[in-house]
Amino acid sequence: MALSVPSPFRFPSEGNPDGYLDQGSALAKVADPIQAPLIAQAFELYGSGLYNLDRLTKEMHRLGLRTRAGHMVGKSVLSRILHNRFYTGLIRIEKTGETYEGKHKPIVPVSLFKHVQDLINGKVGRKVVKHKFLFRQLFRCAHCGRCLIGEHQKGHSYYRCHRSQCPSRPVREEKVDRAVIRTLVRLEYSQEEKDCARKRILELRENWAVDREAVIAALRLKLAALEERQNRLTDAYLDQTIDKVIFEQRKTTLLEERRTMQNRIEEMAAPGASLPDRLSEAVELAGSAYLAYRFAVDEEKRELVKKLSSNRTLTGKSLAITLNSPFDLIANRFSVSDGRPSRDTGRTWDGLLDRLSQELVGKASESGFLAGPSARPRVTQTLLPGSRPCDDRSSHRR
To answer: What does the DSSP assignment read for 161-219?
Structure first.
């Protein structure tokens, strides 16, 4: 079953490249301006963990995905699409099991494609919402790795591991909430820090035209290194020091890394791309996280926690929350390599912004918080230009 604007030529790959338009032999396919965004959205919806194939089929029909005859796209077609590596810019030949880099433009990031495959293969748990507990499926038991289950007891919400004989103990929702707040408070800035960060970012903006070329050059060096690794891998295969199965596995991994690096280069070279702007967004999101969390509704709180942190675990009665990069760098900005605190604000922020820049360049095509403003959590104030309002939060500080 083909989509509404099918390609008359089909690669003998792991599924027909629906969502692309054929330009003739020897020419790269181009993304269909109507269907390609819908296919990209199908990956995003399935990757959210809230959709199985049945529900995704109905939702994509509602959004406008149709067959050539205008009918609903079936589950088998959607399944084929979700399995197809073609959308990441790679072509896999089904008969030989070989993978090649395509000339067409990808419409799905490699990271999203891998996440969808993990969901399909059961490596990542699917979200099933029965009760709207604030921290449902956000914390895991450190002993067995299972998600903590929310339940109501004696007028309070608790989270616990339901595996028998597990040493972890139930924890009240209020305690989890305090642990989240203690983590987010570490991201707040003093007025001196806000002034320093604003000054440094303004300086970066003034020099960005020159600095961008240096960043792109560094990324191209990394891309060249990946290409050299691929050449050495091919030589090893030709010399018969590795077999074909291992060769194809490693080649596919290198091709995915190359595609990701190419995406970063294209994004940095695109008109209007500005690392200082992204840097400002990351710094602002971190600094506003505490107030955004305090005044957000439950679903906004959940999205903020997921965006800023990972590896949220319960050990016995102790909760641990690990901040994602680059927010972990911001939280630990006053710690130097030997573990002693540093209080030189100017020097601290010079080093911090340098490390943040490296992180953002490395994650430019993958990080959700670098998306457009509509994709970021709601914040309650602008951090860098303004001053902090009076707010008693002493009970939340360490």
So the answer is: --STT-----EEHHHHHHHHHHHHHTT---HHHHHHHHHHHHHHHHTHHHHHHHHHHHH
- Residue among 22, 27, 41 nearest 108 (CA): 41
Tokens, residue 311: 């590896």
Asked if 279 and 369 touch (Cβ cutoff 8 Å), the reply is no
Q: Which residue has the higher pLDDT, 139 or 348?
A: 139
Domains, the chain: 20-120 (3.90.1750.20), 179-398 (no CATH)
- Copy the structure tokens of residue 2: 């083909």
Q: What was the pLDDT predicted at 90?
A: 87
Mean of all residue pLDDT scores within the chain: 79
What distance in Å separates the CA atoms of residue 79 and residue 283, rounded to the nearest whole number?
39
77: buried, middle or exposed (CB in 10 Å: 19+, 13-18, 0-12)?
A: buried
The CA–CA distances, whole Å, from 145 to 124, 251, 315, 358 equal 11, 32, 11, 32
Q: What is the pLDDT of residues 271-285, one digit of tens each?
A: 777 788 888 888 899
Q: Say if CB 261 and CB 193 are below 8 A apart.
A: no
Model pLDDT for residues 188-211, shown as the tens digit of each residue = 998 888 888 888 888 888 888 788
Pairing of strands 149-153, 156-160: antiparallel
Query: Burial, 218: exposed, middle or buried (Cβ in 10 Å; 0-12, 13-18, 19+)?
Result: middle
DSSP assignment, residue 11? Answer: -
DSSP assignment letter at 138: T
Closest CA to 282 of 333, 219, 321, 330: 330
Average the pLDDT over 87-103 and give the result. Answer: 84
Residue 148: partners with Cβ closer than 8 Å, 6 or more residues away: 135, 139, 140, 141, 159, 160, 161, 171, 314
Distance between CA atoms of residues 343 and 95, nearest Å: 61
Task: Convert 280-342 into a string of H (helix), E (strand) and C (coil).
Answer: HHHHHHHHHHHHHHHCCCHHHHHHHHHHHEEEEEEECCEEEEEECCCHHHHHCCCECCCCCEC
Q: In which band, very low, low, confident or very high, does the pLDDT at 343 lie, cut at 50, 70 and 90? A: low
- Within 10 A of 296 (CB to CB), how many other CB atoms are there? 17
CA dihedral sign of residues 364, 367, 370, 375: positive
> Do 8 and 80 contact (CB within 8 A), yes or no?
no
